[in-house]
Every structure is written in C-alpha cells, then in structure tokens.
Amino acid sequence: AQSVTQLGSHVSVSEGALVLLRCNYSSSVPPYLFWYVQYPNQGLQLLLKYTTGATLVKGINGFEAEFKKSETSFHLTKPSAHMSDAAEYFCAVSVSGGSYIPTFGRGTSLIVHP
Amino acid sequence: ETGVTQSPTHLIKTRGQQVTLRCSSQSGHNTVSWYQQALGQGPQFIFQYYREEENGRGNFPPRFSGLQFPNYSSELNVNALELDDSALYLCASSSKDRRSSYEQYFGPGTRLTVT
Prior knowledge:
Chain A is mostly beta strands. Chain A has no helices and eleven strands. Chain B has no helices and eleven strands. In chain B, strand 7 and strand 8 (74-78) form a beta hairpin. The radius of gyration of chain B is 13 Å and the shape is globular. Chain A binds chain B through residues 32, 34, 36, 41-46, 49, 51, 90, 94, 98-107, and chain B through 4, 6, 33, 40-45, 48, 55-56, 90, 92, 101-109, 111.
C-alpha cells in the first residue's frame, strides 16, 4: 500500500522568501504524485502533478516540484512567497494497483508573514 | 465546463440521525469519489463509484453508503450518525482515462456537524 509523509505540520516564511514544503512517499510501484492546495472552508485545488517523464513539474501560481525516485521525495517549492499563498497544502500519491485512488498526507499549513 | 458542486454547504444533525449529501460531477467525468476530512487532517477515502458501481472502499463502516446515478452525480448516505462523523465531506470527480492521469477535481465540500 502507498503512503505519504509530509514533514512539518506548519511552515512559516516571510513574504518574498523561498517556500519549501516537504513530501516523502512510499510505493512499491511507480507512483503518480500530486500537490493540492486548500484555502479555508474550500475544497482542494490541484497545484501540479507528476505522472511520467520530466521529473521537474511546474504548476499554477509559480509552484514547482521535483520527483526524486532515489529519495522517494516530491517536495514543493516556490521562489518567492506571496501573502495569498497562505493555505493548507496536501501531497498525495496514487498507483495503478490502488485503482489510482489517491492517498493524502496530513497536510502542511503555510503561514506567510508580511 | 461546469465544475464539481456539492449540496448542502453546511448541515447540523443530531447523533443517531441519518444524512444524505449530494454531488454533481464535472462534465465529462464518469467517476466520483467521496472523502472525509476531519479538522486538521488530510482527506480520508470513503469510497468511489464508477459507472454506478462501487469501485473501491476505504476503512469506513457499512453505515456509510453511496449511490451514483446515470448522469454520474452521486449521493453519500450516513446512517446512525456519531459525533466523530463531524467533518468536511469532499466529493471529487475524475475520468477513468489514462490520459487524464486519473486527476481528481474536488467540490467545495459539505461541512457536517453532529451534536
């Protein structure tokens, strides 16, 4: 079975600083990997996804993530944080053996200080 | 293209009651998944429906049941509500088409409070 670990339930950065949200996965077969963002009292919005091919994937709002198989990681980055980036971020993994039903991490709350 | 919609947005029920939540999937999608998101947690998979048949189920008791209709909309029913059922219930639609990477599109959720 697949699993996801998000390191750090809260990450605090200053506006304009680098954002780094960590995600490690466990899977015995090639995974599909996703990052979602959730604003208060809203559903989840897909930021980016990795399926196959290029290991550096770019998403919306200036976010990107790199799939590192050797490290079983899929960390999310953004060069310069904006106040509007403050939200909850979820990493998810899905595999063919699991009917591609995603397993989510517990989430990381991004706090952006002015 | 219409996105995923859910109704109602908020609901308050008493322990022991039954509740039905509704979801309309995005145009062109044939698969609906339901998730429970407790406060401060990630979404937990309840079950998935594909072409009106249950296609997978998470670790939830049988009092959680569902339906999918010919137009691919769906219902989540919860019987004998317990206090721990208080959560945000998310519906996600997707297409079982490899080109889509099985990407799920989420609705805004229904906030259920059980007192």
